[in-house]
Amino acid sequence: MNDVLVIGAGPAGLSAAIAAARQGLSVKIVDEFYRPGGRLLGQLHEEPDGVWWNGLAEAARLDQEARALGVNISCGVSVYDIARCDDRWRISTTEGEWESSLLLIATGASEAAVPVPGWTLPGVMSIGAAQVMTNVQRVRVGKKGVVIGVNILSVAIARELQLAGVHVEQLILPPLSEVSGKAGRPHEIMRSLLRVAHLAPSPVIRLGSKLMGSAWMQRLAVAFFPSKGVRMWDMPIHLRTAALEIVGTSQVEGVRTARVTPEGLPIPGTEQLIPADFVCIAGGLSPLAELAAIAGCPFAYVPALGGHVPLHDEYMKTPLPGLYVAGNITGIESAKVAMSQGTVAGLSMAQASGLLADDSLLSQAQLQVKRVRQNATIQFHPDIAAGRELVGQMAAAWTAR
Amino acid sequence: MDAQQVIICRCEEVSLEELLSTAREYQCTARELKLRTRAGMGCCGGRTCRILIEQIVEQATGQVPTHTVSLGYQPPVRPISFQTLGGKSS
Amino acid sequence: MSQRIFHHPVLGSMEERTALQFQFNGAVYTAYEGETIAGALLAAGVRTLRVHEETGAPRGIYCNIGHCYECRVHVDGIPTVRACMTLVTEGMCVTAGSVLPTPLKKGGHAK
């Protein structure tokens, strides 16, 4: 029997396994994906200093290190149930059942959809699907397509598609509806784009964004947004154009669009049809917490973190005995944060087992999480720190009941 | 296609129009909306549409998300065969 | 023409992989080791992996990471297998599901 079971072989799960194994624990990881690395595998972007973040290489490094430490990694295995059995956790999987007293759930996030009429047609996929197909499967998702939903993730992945020789015709907004949230509102999108404008290769956009600190300037920018879009990395981003419908008989053939007001309302008489053979939909990410829920873990609803997150403390420990969480399941941030959280979780589990010789490793790892967050080039959401505070407070309150 | 005909639950092909009108008529919780329309009951276990269902309930009834997850999760969270349940690996 | 990305400006050239043959709906396709059913079919221009069991609407991959189950196919007789999560093996026999009868549904009819 293993000392530690980890569900999820992404950056958090692998980092936790490495940290725990280094302290002498025996670790088994299960993951339903066909290779280790999680969503890190598909990541490929240029950092401001010109260095490329290559997720495949990072994942390979983590995988190698884990295996060298004796960590057992089983891919292609799905966990369908978790139950408490005496003083242990039992996970039920498609390859059998396993038990351990220490269980880490590091299942990451799922994509939140923004429905667009016609989005069930073959050829329409989530933006994350396109990333995996391009960088992991090395298959082009189509010849020419449209990205619906403008945010950090969709812009980054559209660039990845472009790098791979896939033509992205336009990045546009989804149609306003009861389920589009902020995604269909030009003002909201402008605000969130300005937070990452410092990463733009174009000095014009960087300078322009510095001038746009005030709300009234942002409104002006949206009002006068060029009808041909703004080209970032040679891709037209259209804040004043929205998709009305994705059309095609048996698969995607095009997207009907309209110009929209600064509030996102379609302007009559401006309809166009963009021919396309693929469409990517970009909503946002949300913690994939189903396994934590069936294990009986309590939650906090924190929109800044992506939705419902399992309660946990700064040791990545949930209120349930022996149950830990790490990575995007705790809130949507970067792979680097996930890795540093995983390290904390691994060391915490070692400490709980009485195998952590040096406690300062754990406090250093906790500091590292904060450091990574502060140094992040992209702040995923302005209220993340406050969100994490709330989760910590609620976890403490739950344990004190 | 009329915009309200957009599919929300892909697995069961439940439209926005059906969900909104049902939620408005019964002023129900997300769970009751799921039971009435089958949205969230399909093969994906509600993974794709649960957030959309919650947004629709909020729009139609004013109920905002609380710290408790509104659409409960039930094991098994993956479709599995009786063979797997019986202890044989797939 | 294959839509495979053999040469990528940052990821480099694809290393040599073993070629495999598999069937989808009776037609033979080539895959390379490490490709999923969904990836290999997309490389061959095939997007439709199944039809909706009630409406018959064509469906293909949506999430590509095993969450949405849109890509479910029958593999060697076993149903509900995610094409996006399953690596192709030599001689694999894949079929798309079809519309299922709904004899008990109000207004529905057995096919």
TrEMBL record, chain B:
Superkingdom, taxonomy of origin: Bacteria
Pfam families listed in its UniProt record: Fer2_BFD (PF04324)
Domain BFD-like [2Fe-2S]-binding: 7-58
Gene3D superfamilies the UniProt entry points to: BFD-like [2Fe-2S]-binding domain (1.10.10.1100)
InterPro entries given in the database record: BFD-like_2Fe2S-bd_dom, BFD-like_2Fe2S-bd_dom_sf
Protein name: Pyridine nucleotide-disulfide oxidoreductase
TrEMBL record, chain C:
One protein family per Pfam: Fer2_4
Keywords: Oxidoreductase
UniProt superkingdom: Bacteria
Gene3D superfamilies documented for this protein: 2Fe-2S iron-sulphur cluster binding domain, sarcosine oxidase, alpha subunit, N-terminal domain
Molecular-function GO term, any one: iron-sulfur cluster binding
Protein name, as recorded: Sarcosine oxidase subunit alpha
Species this protein is from: Brevibacillus parabrevis
